[in-house]
Design brief:
Blueprint (H helix, E strand, L loop, with lengths): L6 H22 L8 H14 L3 E2 L11 E5 L2 E3 L13 E10 L2 E10 L5 H18 L8 H14 L3 E2 L5 E3 L6 E5 L16 E4 L2 E3 L5 E3 L6 E3 L5 E3 L2 E6 L2 E4 L3
Antiparallel strand pairs: 1-4, 2-4, 3-12, 4-5, 6-10, 7-8, 7-9, 9-14, 10-13, 11-12, 14-15
Helix pairs in contact: 1-2, 3-4
């Protein structure tokens, strides 16, 4: 059963989403070549706690950090470390907060310095795919319409969508039903209803879609070691269409 949020639930989730975006906007100002992902995590946690929220990821199923930080060929669930960000890297940050019992989830990919060619196209295509997926979040459409919008666009650009990790519902828990794949045929599965809230998050690889888990048991890497990008929004399904809560 996919939870339906009340008007008061949605108001609380709007506040959580707005706060999360303000936090990430501040965090972006600290990110430059030479900073470690561990320092990024420290700053993010400090910003979250200062605003009276809690990091949603820290301790979740044993995850040790407040943000997931991935570089280049790392796809998702990267554990922050002393590894430093350098010019030409692409950095993926996935951040979640709990504000007064309501969760919000947001991810973005940053280019460090100048990037060109297919790497630049990868970031642009992944961000566009998120926009196209979000645009399907209308009442009475199918959940798989989101999936198909993402997959069809990404594959037309010559990239591939990760199949081992998916988006999800969100609200009073970090992960709620349904699972939202980034692949699948349209007009299949659950029917979207007003009041559903979805974390839509295309993860896109430059090469093949296959991933493997690193020795730390968390970080997913592209199997072919080519780069990967990730963008995510928390989105409410309303009678007027999708409302991005992390915008």
């Amino acid at each position: 059963m996919i939870p339906i949020k009340s008007a008061s639930d949605l108001a609380a989730m709007r506040r959580a989403g707005s706060l999360l975006v303000r936090i990430t906007d501040k965090l972006r100002g600290f990110i430059k070549a030479g900073i470690s992902t561990l320092e990024i995590d420290r700053i993010a946690e400090e910003l979250i706690l200062k605003e009276g929220a809690r990091p949603a990821f820290k301790g979740y199923l044993g995850f040790p950090a407040s943000v997931c930080a991935c570089l280049n060929e790392e796809v998702v669930h990267g554990i922050p470390s002393e590894r430093q960000v350098k010019e030409g890297d692409i950095l993926k940050l996935d951040i979640g907060i709990n504000l007064n019992g309501y969760f919000s989830d947001y991810a973005f990919t940053l280019a460090i310095g100048n990037i060109e060619g297919r790497v630049k196209k990868l970031l642009e295509a992944t961000k566009r795919a998120l926009d196209l997926g979000v645009a399907q979040a209308f009442p009475e459409r199918h959940l798989s319409d989101i999936s198909w919008a993402i997959q069809s666009y990404i594959e037309a650009q010559g990239f591939s969508v990760v199949r081992d990790f998916v988006g999800h519902g969100i609200g009073l828990k970090m992960h709620e039903p349904p699972e939202i794949t980034n692949f699948g045929r349209p007009r299949k599965g659950a029917i979207l209803k007003e009041g559903m809230v979805l974390a839509i998050e295309p993860m896109v690889n430059m090469g093949g879609w296959e991933v493997k888990i690193s020795d730390n048991g968390w970080t997913a890497l592209t199997k072919d070691r080519l780069q990967s990008a990730h963008f995510e929004h928390t989105v409410a399904v309303t009678k007027d269409g999708p409302e991005i809560l992390t915008k």
